[in-house]
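Attaching the record inline, Q. Sequence:
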Amino acid sequence: MEGKQFPFYLLLLFSWLMVNQVASDIPTTKKGCDPQCGNVSIPFPVGIKQGCFLDEWFEIVCQNDNSSNTIPKPILNRTKLEVIEISVEGTLQVRNPITFLNCSDKQIRQSANLEGSPFKYSQNNKFAAVGCGAIALMNSGEASIGGCSSICNNTAYGNSCNGINCCQTKGSQY
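Structure, as predicted:
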């Protein structure tokens, strides 16, 4: 019985080695294109130079502030969001600025508009609102797709976001 199991395990081992070899042979950057901006690898379909990205939504601008001690930052050109990581599995992690709308002061700083883009916010995101009596909503067009509200307690401050002076909810994919 043991002799019959050995070839199966060997087949599994060879299959695993072949899959890993094939995966390592897949080019992640088009030939002649910059493979990196700062500390971020830039695999196709994203790219820095003309001909290196799939379409304008995938164009990266490698931004350098000309200071000798700063690392260049990859910026998605259409959304102006800083890219933190790109995976070949199809996810793109960006630094999304804090967004707010203060009704009393009429101050506005809205999040990036992804309408018409191939990108969606992931369900892995956490959506949070910080402050006493904060109400936060995620909208997609005319529909509210998530949100939370916090209650006030002037004596309860800490590192948790549990609904008192802070609220959070899991992001919705849109």
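Helices lie at 2-25. The chain has two domains: 23-95, 100-170.

More tomorrow.
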